[in-house]
Design brief:
Blueprint: H1 2-21, H2 25-32, E1 34-41, E2 47-54, E3 62-76, E4 82-97, E5 103-116, H3 118-133, H4 145-171, E6 181-186, E7 189-193, E8 199-205
Antiparallel strand pairs: 1-2, 1-8, 2-3, 3-4, 4-5, 6-7, 7-8
C-alpha cells in the first residue's frame, strides 16, 4: 500500500511539473512579433537605448530579427578634429525558440551598419572645413559636401566596425544556450531572464521596419 501511494504521488508530481514547464510556443512566437525597446549599459556604465524587431517565424521555431542600438561618441579624428556624434548600430540576425519558450539569438555580423545622425555629421563637416582652411595644404578643398561626408563616414565606420562585429559575434548564443529564458509577454511587456540570470523587461513600441524586410523579392 505504501509503495502504491509513493508511486501515485511521484506520478502526480511529475505530471504537475511537466504542466508547469509546458508553454504554448505558437502563441509566444505570435506575441513576440513586433518591436521591443529597453536600455543596456556599456562596460563603463553608460546607458544606451536598444530595440529589437522580431519578424514572424515561418517554420514554427525560427525567424529573423533586427537590432537597433542608439549610441553616442565624443572623440577626435586622426587630424585632431573633435566629433560628437549620435549614431545607430543596426544588425540583422536569426532567433530560435525551443519547446520551453527559451529564445537563442544569432547575429549576422556581415550586416552590421553604423549610421550617424545627419545633424551631427553636418556640424562635424563644418569643423573639418574650418580645420582644413587653416592648413598650409588643404586636404578637402576640392571635395563637395557629399564627397566630404562620404570620406568622413568611411573613416568613422572603419575605426569601429570590426570592434562592433566582434562584439556581436561574442553575443551570439552558442549551441544549446539561450539569452532569453523564461519568456513572458503580457500587457505590452516582454520579460525574461538573461543567460546570466538577470531579470529584464522590454516595452513594446511601434515597428521600425517593414514586415517584408527579409523577403527574397525585396
Amino acid at each position: 500500500m505504501k509503495h502504491f501511494l509513493k508511486t501515485a504521488l511521484m506520478t502526480t508530481a511529475t505530471v504537475l511539473a511537466l504542466g508547469a514547464c509546458s508553454v504554448d510556443r505558437g502563441k509566444l512566437l505570435n506575441d513576440l512579433v513586433g518591436n521591443w525597446m529597453s536600455t543596456e549599459a556599456t562596460d563603463d556604465g553608460k546607458e544606451y537605448e536598444v530595440a529589437r524587431q522580431f519578424f514572424a517565424s515561418k517554420d514554427g521555431e525560427t525567424g529573423n530579427f533586427i537590432e537597433d542600438q542608439k549610441r553616442y561618441v565624443d572623440e577626435a579624428d586622426g587630424n585632431g578634429v573633435p566629433y560628437r556624434l549620435h549614431y545607430e548600430v543596426i544588425v540583422c540576425g536569426t532567433y530560435r525558440m525551443d519547446a520551453s519558450g527559451n529564445v537563442s539569438l544569432q547575429y549576422d555580423t556581415a550586416t552590421v551598419a553604423l549610421i550617424p545622425e545627419e545633424e551631427d555629421m553636418v556640424a562635424y563637416q563644418t569643423r573639418v572645413r574650418e580645420w582644413d582652411a587653416a592648413q598650409e595644404a588643404s586636404l578637402y578643398a576640392d571635395m563637395d559636401d557629399m564627397e566630404l561626408e562620404d570620406v568622413l563616414l568611411y573613416d568613422f565606420e572603419a575605426e569601429r566596425i570590426e570592434g562592433k562585429r566582434s562584439a556581436f559575434a561574442n553575443r551570439s548564443d552558442k549551441e544549446g544556450q539561450a539569452s532569453i529564458q523564461g519568456l513572458k509577454i503580457e500587457d505590452g511587456k516582454l520579460t525574461f531572464k538573461a543567460s546570466d540570470g538577470k531579470a529584464l523587461s522590454w516595452e513594446r513600441i511601434d515597428d521600425f521596419f517593414e514586415e517584408d524586410f527579409f523577403d527574397d523579392d525585396v
